[in-house]
């Protein structure tokens, strides 16, 4: 790998880290922002919800735009939008302006997030897909863990505005470096891309996924708050399926799912996102409720979960380029099952070291099946379908993350006690890991023995 490629990969990963850190930092500032603007927690919560919905709704557009306008052009546009939204959010004068500027941030992140996967896959090529996706896994593992820690540290030392202005500084560095090291787009960015945007598909798919994510993000679980957006989202997604079956150039060709390796890969990653975010929400709650720790201490005790993934994913990704995905993923899933089984046994008298070790091994196991799975996905996708495959992967990962958080909230609220609810969450995680184990045989075995996804497939 040349020095130029290494530099481009590093800059792409830096940009990918921006959205994850910003969203997780802002999540810990809800109480501070409510006090600053003199409003309720539910109102200021829309600053995070609006960001998440904007990300989800923008991802399908990126699928089309990356080939129409070029990867570097779209990356720079996403960074500029994210920077503008961050600066404006840091200068917000009331809660309404903050929510609006967070939506602008979310649109920028919705361009950047799937582009990270697309640009990495194109830079690395199929032979190095596992190695590069393993590096991406470091960002995905550490971002959600250290975001709340960094947010708490900033809020403890500075004002809430600094939390958004820090993103401006980091984003400006990423923008300057991107202009220097990311390879230039071709002189004809629209060559080979669809001549027209699938407007009907975009109007159905983006809002459909956003509505489902909104339903899952509701913490009150009032019937209308969940069923109304969930019903709307499902109806829009069914409408997209009917539209894609007859459209000449749908935004995302559902024929992708005819490949068993593709279907297995994106399902495994969706379940992985669900397990990670369930752990990220359940473990701090356990440390606070069972051991009386504060938010910062609980966040630090949660760090082994992300650290395990950050250690395992680069190693497993590199090995999968030579050995294939199936054996590594199977071993990782077994470790993940055993780790979560250990977490079902924790109680008030359990020393903190044991759940921390179980979280570390869960992160190691998850990393060992996630990076090879992502690598196998990009080894089977032909170049013209990388953008569509990346968007499907990211949307299902987002959906899995939202479902993980929703399950934690629902199970804990309906259980007899918080500890009983947390044990129920970990049992659900065991079931999720067992499903991953069942899907792993559908992944490619040895490197090169892949089932390629055919271009032009129709649903």
From TrEMBL:
<keyword id="KW-1003">Cell membrane</keyword>
<keyword id="KW-0812">Transmembrane</keyword>
<dbReference type="InterPro" id="IPR011701">
    <property type="entry name" value="MFS"/>
</dbReference>
<keyword id="KW-0813">Transport</keyword>
<keyword id="KW-0472">Membrane</keyword>
<feature type="transmembrane region" description="Helical">
    <location>
        <begin position="328"/>
        <end position="347"/>
    </location>
</feature>
<feature type="transmembrane region" description="Helical">
    <location>
        <begin position="222"/>
        <end position="242"/>
    </location>
</feature>
<feature type="transmembrane region" description="Helical">
    <location>
        <begin position="199"/>
        <end position="216"/>
    </location>
</feature>
<feature type="transmembrane region" description="Helical">
    <location>
        <begin position="424"/>
        <end position="444"/>
    </location>
</feature>
<dbReference type="InterPro" id="IPR036259">
    <property type="entry name" value="MFS_trans_sf"/>
</dbReference>
<feature type="transmembrane region" description="Helical">
    <location>
        <begin position="353"/>
        <end position="371"/>
    </location>
</feature>
<feature type="transmembrane region" description="Helical">
    <location>
        <begin position="46"/>
        <end position="66"/>
    </location>
</feature>
<feature type="transmembrane region" description="Helical">
    <location>
        <begin position="392"/>
        <end position="412"/>
    </location>
</feature>
<feature type="transmembrane region" description="Helical">
    <location>
        <begin position="160"/>
        <end position="179"/>
    </location>
</feature>
<dbReference type="Pfam" id="PF07690">
    <property type="entry name" value="MFS_1"/>
</dbReference>
<comment type="similarity">
    <text>Belongs to the major facilitator superfamily. EmrB family.</text>
</comment>
<feature type="transmembrane region" description="Helical">
    <location>
        <begin position="132"/>
        <end position="154"/>
    </location>
</feature>
<feature type="transmembrane region" description="Helical">
    <location>
        <begin position="293"/>
        <end position="316"/>
    </location>
</feature>
<keyword id="KW-1133">Transmembrane helix</keyword>
<feature type="transmembrane region" description="Helical">
    <location>
        <begin position="262"/>
        <end position="287"/>
    </location>
</feature>
<protein>
    <submittedName>
        <fullName>DHA2 family efflux MFS transporter permease subunit</fullName>
    </submittedName>
</protein>
<dbReference type="InterPro" id="IPR004638">
    <property type="entry name" value="EmrB-like"/>
</dbReference>
<feature type="transmembrane region" description="Helical">
    <location>
        <begin position="73"/>
        <end position="93"/>
    </location>
</feature>
<feature type="domain" description="Major facilitator superfamily (MFS) profile">
    <location>
        <begin position="8"/>
        <end position="448"/>
    </location>
</feature>
<dbReference type="InterPro" id="IPR020846">
    <property type="entry name" value="MFS_dom"/>
</dbReference>
């Amino acid at each position: 790998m040349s020095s130029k490629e290494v530099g481009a990969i590093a800059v792409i990963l830096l940009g990918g880290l921006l959205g994850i850190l910003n969203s997780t930092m802002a999540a810990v500032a809800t109480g501070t922002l409510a006090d600053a603007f003199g409003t309720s927690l539910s109102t200021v919560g829309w600053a995070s919800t609006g960001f998440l919905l904007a990300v989800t709704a923008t991802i399908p557009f990126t699928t089309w735009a990356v080939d129409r306008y070029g990867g570097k052009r779209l990356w720079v546009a996403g960074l500029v939008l994210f920077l503008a939204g961050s600066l404006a959010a840091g200068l917000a004068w009331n809660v309404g302006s903050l929510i609006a500027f967070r939506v602008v941030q979310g649109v920028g992140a919705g361009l950047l997030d799937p582009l990270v996967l697309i640009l990495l896959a194109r830079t690395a090529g199929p032979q190095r897909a596992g190695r590069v996706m393993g590096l991406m896994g470091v960002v995905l593992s550490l971002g959600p863990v250290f975001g709340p820690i960094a947010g708490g540290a900033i809020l403890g030392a500075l004002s809430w505005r600094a939390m958004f202005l820090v993103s401006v500084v980091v984003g400006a560095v990423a923008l300057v470096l991107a202009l220097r090291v990311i390879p230039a787009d071709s002189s004809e960015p629209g060559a080979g891309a669809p001549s027209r945007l699938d407007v009907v598909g975009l109007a159905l798919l983006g809002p459909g996924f956003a509505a489902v994510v909104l339903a899952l993000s509701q913490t009150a679980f009032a019937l209308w708050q969940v069923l109304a957006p969930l019903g709307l989202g499902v109806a829009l997604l069914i409408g997209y399926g009917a539209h894609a079956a007859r459209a000449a150039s749908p935004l995302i060709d559902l024929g992708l799912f005819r490949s068993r390796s593709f279907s297995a890969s994106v399902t495994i990653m969706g379940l992985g996102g669900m397990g990670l975010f369930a752990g990220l929400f359940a473990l701090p709650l356990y440390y606070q409720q069972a051991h009386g720790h504060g938010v910062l201490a609980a966040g630090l005790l949660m760090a082994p979960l992300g650290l395990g993934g950050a250690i395992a994913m680069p190693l497993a990704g590199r090995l999968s380029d030579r050995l294939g995905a199936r054996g590594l993923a199977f071993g990782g899933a077994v470790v993940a099952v055993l780790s979560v089984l250990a977490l079902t046994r924790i109680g008030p008298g359990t020393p903190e070291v044991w759940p921390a070790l179980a979280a570390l091994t869960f992160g190691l196991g998850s990393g060992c099946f996630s990076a090879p799975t992502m690598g196998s996905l990009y080894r089977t996708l032909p170049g013209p379908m990388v953008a569509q495959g990346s968007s499907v992967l990211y949307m299902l990962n987002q959906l899995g993350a939202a479902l993980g958080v929703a399950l934690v909230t629902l199970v804990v609220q309906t259980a007899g006690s918080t500890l009983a609810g947390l044990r129920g969450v970990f049992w659900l995680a065991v079931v999720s890991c067992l499903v991953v184990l069942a899907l792993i045989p559908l992944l490619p075995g040895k490197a090169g023995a892949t089932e390629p996804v055919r271009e032009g497939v129709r649903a």
